[in-house]
């Protein structure tokens, strides 16, 4: 079993195709429906294999990797804790299909805008906290303040944009939710991961030796996640409104106007299923930052522990 290393992804993470294959399996919506018993069994199998290096009875290499991906989908890579099911990346497709569908369907009134933007940012805050980098705890007060700031920023953005597009063609109003989500992501993600910005995220040598906590690595990781999240929302929140607008102009929903809802939900679901893993794959989860880019005290530690190291690595989160 020497060829199987469960401490690393199965696919080459230095290539986009390898990362795409990795995240297609990691973020599969099917993983979100696994029972606690199945997850605990997966954890037991992975833990025992790491210790013994022996293939469990009834398992082959493919089944072992299936179990490892199920384990990775539910347990945090830094803390090892079981993540709340709706905060896992595997829940992105079903949850975002409903929420995004609601945002782009019910966007004409202020109460509807407030409700769906609040629901979206509450869900995003949960996902951002669940998939944070590092293992340092965050206080309840800090978490609540971050959540309020994230929701407030998103609602302000959405309501401001809605007020500006009232006299514009309908397609502009349909695209307001996407614009609000873009702006809100750059508020929500840093706020829900403010603990990393204040205290730093753990950085390691390429061989896995912990160096310390770097605020600069945290800033880089959060920026990369913001970019990937915006691109993740792009297909479902732009293609769907555009196609809906075209279909409406051609009279597809004249006789059955309520059919616009399943039409939009279907398009959003199709987009999200593929956009989630393909955008997660844009950057390596174990990101690298040059030694010369981190704090000077950490540079000194790297020079002592690994003089030949040019970069340190860290979990950027998802």
Summary of the model, kept short:
The chain is mainly alpha-helical and 318 residues long.
In terms of topology, how is this protein built?
Blueprint: H1 16-26, H2 36-52, H3 61-74, H4 92-105, H5 110-130, H6 140-164, H7 170-192, H8 194-199, E1 201-204, E2 210-214, H9 215-249, H10 260-280, E3 286-290, H11 296-305, E4 311-315
Antiparallel strand pairs: 1-2, 3-4
Strand order of the largest sheet: 1-2
- Averaged pLDDT, please? 86
Order of helices and strands: HHHHHHHHEEHHEHE
Q: Report the total helices.
A: 11
CA radius of gyration? 21 Å
Give me the count of strands: 4
Largest sheet: 2 strands, antiparallel
Shape: globular
**Any low-confidence stretches, pLDDT <50, length ≥5?**
none
Determine the fraction of residues in helical runs and give it as a percent range: 55-70%
Structural class: mainly alpha
Query: For the terminal residues, how far apart are their CA atoms?
Result: 30 Å
Strand content: 5-15%
């Amino acid at each position: 079993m020497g060829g199987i290393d469960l401490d690393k992804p199965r696919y080459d993470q230095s290539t986009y195709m390898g990362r795409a294959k990795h995240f297609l399996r990691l973020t599969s919506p099917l993983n979100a429906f696994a029972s606690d018993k199945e997850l605990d069994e997966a954890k037991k199998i992975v833990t025992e294999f790491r210790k013994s290096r022996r293939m469990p009875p009834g398992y082959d290499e493919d089944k072992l990797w299936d179990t490892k991906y199920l384990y990775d989908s539910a347990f945090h890579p830094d803390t090892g804790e079981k993540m709340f099911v709706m905060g896992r990346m595997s829940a992105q497709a079903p949850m975002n299909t409903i929420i995004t569908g609601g945002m782009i369907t019910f966007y004409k009134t202020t109460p509807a805008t407030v409700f769906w933007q609040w629901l979206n940012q509450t869900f995003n805050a949960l996902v951002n906290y669940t998939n944070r980098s590092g293992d340092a705890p965050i206080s309840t007060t800090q978490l609540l303040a971050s959540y309020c700031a994230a929701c407030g920023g998103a609602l302000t953005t959405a309501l401001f944009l809605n007020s500006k597009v009232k006299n514009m063609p309908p397609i502009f109003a349909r695209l307001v939710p996407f614009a609000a989500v873009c702006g809100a992501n750059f508020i929500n993600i840093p706020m829900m991961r403010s603990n990393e910005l204040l205290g730093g995220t753990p950085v390691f040598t390429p061989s896995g030796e912990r160096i310390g906590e770097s605020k600069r690595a945290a800033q880089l990781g959060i920026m990369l996640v913001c970019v990937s999240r915006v691109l993740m929302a792009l297909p479902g929140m732009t293609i769907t409104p555009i196609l809906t607008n075209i279909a409406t102009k051609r009279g597809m929903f004249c006789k059955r106007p309520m059919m616009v809802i399943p039409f939009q939900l279907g398009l959003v679901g199709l987009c999200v299923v593929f956009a989630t893993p393909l955008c997660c794959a844009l950057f390596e989860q174990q990101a690298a930052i040059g030694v010369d880019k981190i704090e000077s005290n950490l540079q000194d530690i790297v020079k002592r522990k690994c003089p030949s190291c040019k970069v340190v690595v860290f979990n950027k989160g998802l």
